[in-house]
Amino acid sequence: MTRHVEPCMGTVFTIDIRDEGEWRAAIAEVVTWLHQVDAVFSIYRSDSDISRIRRREIGIADADPLVSEVLDRCLDMQRATDGFFTARRDGAFDPTGLVKGWAVERASRLLLERGSRHHAINGGGDIQAVGGTAPGAPWRVGISDPHDKRRVVATVSGIDLAVATSGTAERGSHITNPYTGQPAAGLASVTVVGPALTAADCYATAAFVMGTAAAAWLDAVPGYEAILVGTDGSAVRTRGCPVR
Fold this sequence. Notes:
Elements: E1 2-8, E2 11-17, H1 24-41, H2 49-54, H3 65-80, E3 88-89, E4 92-93, H4 96-113, E5 119-123, E6 126-130, E7 139-145, E8 148-158, E9 161-167, E10 187-194, H5 197-210, H6 214-219, E11 225-230, E12 235-237
Antiparallel strand pairs: 1-2, 2-5, 3-4, 5-6, 6-9, 7-8, 9-10, 10-11, 11-12
Helix pairs in contact: 1-4, 4-5
């Protein structure tokens, strides 16, 4: 087992490779990729492409090609979520709701290309897992109670899965309803489980904005399941959620 922890994007990324062998070169590539994404997309770095776009110093066509790729993904997810996920905040372009999950999913693909068949990358609690902890052994991910971080609401398990959570536990009321302009209310957290982290992350954000109506909406999203925790502590699961 090889494990690496890397601070980046204002959070911590954990790269956990369960394959035998030497993985330092592949991990170095993943680390370089994550810092490249931060350099391009951070809204907290004045020299990032996104900050320069927001100041209207450059256009999207003048920025790193990754910006156009992410913008296209954001527009796809906006359409898929009926506009509840958006890449705009306070009238400005802000794709950060998609970028971290997208960066982790791409980093996982890089490890696959380097030959890893059993690994997980955790970016601030959003996880893309490939294979299992060993051949035939599923990954298990505990879902924290947003009202009490010492408590686990449920554990999801599976082979080849992504897990993403949106809520108020870590950063308070930071998710805005694009239709009202007000902080999203009605739920404490939404955890979405599926095959790909980019989509899972966006679905979790959109569902959190939807509030209590999100459970029925998520039940109709193919390939993805969810656990929704209300502001009163109650938990609801979609029909096929792989929990115990």
